[in-house]
């Protein structure tokens, strides 16, 4: 098994999900999982070792067939594989107390008169016991078995990132705002992205030298505030095709005030015979970056052998909820509207930017975003709603405290001079959005990618509207109104791209509505 799914063989509780020896990641089974269960009055553990990433945590209950980890090459190994063993609680008479000892899970039955007894039991260890659900047979005759249907976990978690999911973030080593390298001897490779040799055209690498400690040199990818929505993400690292042969690149994932690990043999990615370019690092919950005790980041250390090369290229974080059920654009120029903060606070439906906050005069800005023909069944349970904004600015660093509401009308019309965002009846539900001054919004023209920001989860607002008896799937609209939080005053504002842009076709950079729901 080379960086593939590891499934639980039985129901049980996770009693270990960690390094076998946290101070030495090259020891023993490396990153490992132990599951404990009881069967016919006895207690058993199954061990899964040399893993690269864990999908479970200590004390978690799991069911048979659940993906619990990704196989790998951590610990003391000669190459990527899965170490699997079964242990049974046993109290030998000569010992005071008991322990978990390896047990033969095939059982023991012999027709050899010279070996009628179980050799494991004779050696003072637990007697062999048949723990197989349906095979192999304990018949004394020679048996041949056809391969059974494989246990297929589907594609969850995906071992390759789905970058078509609109809620994802790729941080490349060229992103000077989010990537940093520390320590000596880092080298940079440029102009390498045309044939998949690297991601984004550049990557960094270094050789581990004698005397290096695991943290004497590292690279870090750090999302900024509001780069991510609150949720669970699959995390990946892109491995270049050269200068990446370390048997252990040790990744630390700091997320939502927690810390987890992954260990990757970079020589098994993007090399002859190993076509995968992204290494899966695991699934973790992330915050939007506000009110955290420690910064969210992915850090990689060189924990391989002296003389081996470790690369640092790009990291991808993809929302694990999957792509949205609806991904709706604004389709009319009059479907996004509001005052222009820099032109006398004049209202309009054809401005090239939509402003948020206050005008220079201190006047409150009320802006609106309308999405038509929303095909959500009435009564659907909405789990997640975000507005996907392309931001503008040069740069904008003003702190804002905003509220999102919905237009309570299911037949919400497009905006006009006589029916503006501030004229709409509002939902009872609302969501707060705080944008700190440290979250700099700026616009760089192509070929630089635009900056993206996501609204907070607006599901409660959308749910209130969809639950209305007048809601008509496929023809009703969801309209969101954005205004300053009551009591928040000033002259600060920010701006997002509107439907109309002089430098691109209409709608290219307009807001989009992303909706996840269950019928």
Short description:
This protein has 519 residues and is mainly beta. The chain is built from 2 helices and 32 strands. It has helices at residues 119-122, 459-466; strands at 5-7, 12-19, 31-39, 42-54, 61-62, 67-71, 83-90, 99-102, 168-171, 179-182, 187-190, 202-207, 218-221, 231-238, 249-255, 258-264, 278-286, 297-302, 309-312, 315-319, 326-329, 336-340, 346-348, 353-357, 367-371, 381-392, 400-406, 431-435, 452-454, 478-484, 493-497, 512-518.
Task: Kindly describe this structure.
The structure is a single chain. The protein has 519 residues and is mainly β. It folds into three domains: 5-102, Glucose Permease (Domain IIA) (Distorted Sandwich), CATH 2.70.70.10; 168-319, Jelly Rolls, CATH 2.60.120.260; 326-518. The chain is 2% helix and 36% strand. The chain has helices spanning 119-122, 459-466; strands at 5-7, 12-19, 31-39, 42-54, 61-62, 67-71, 83-90, 99-102, 168-171, 179-182, 187-190, 202-207, 218-221, 231-238, 249-255, 258-264, 278-286, 297-302, 309-312, 315-319, 326-329, 336-340, 346-348, 353-357, 367-371, 381-392, 400-406, 431-435, 452-454, 478-484, 493-497, 512-518. Strands 1, 2, 3, 4, 5, 6, 7 and 8 form an eight-stranded antiparallel β-sheet that branches. Strands 21, 24, 26, 29, 31 and 32 form a six-stranded antiparallel β-sheet that branches. A six-stranded antiparallel β-sheet has the order 23-22-25-30-27-28. Strand 7 (83-90) and strand 8 (99-102) form a beta hairpin. It starts with a strand and ends with a strand. The model has no long low-confidence stretch (mean pLDDT 91).
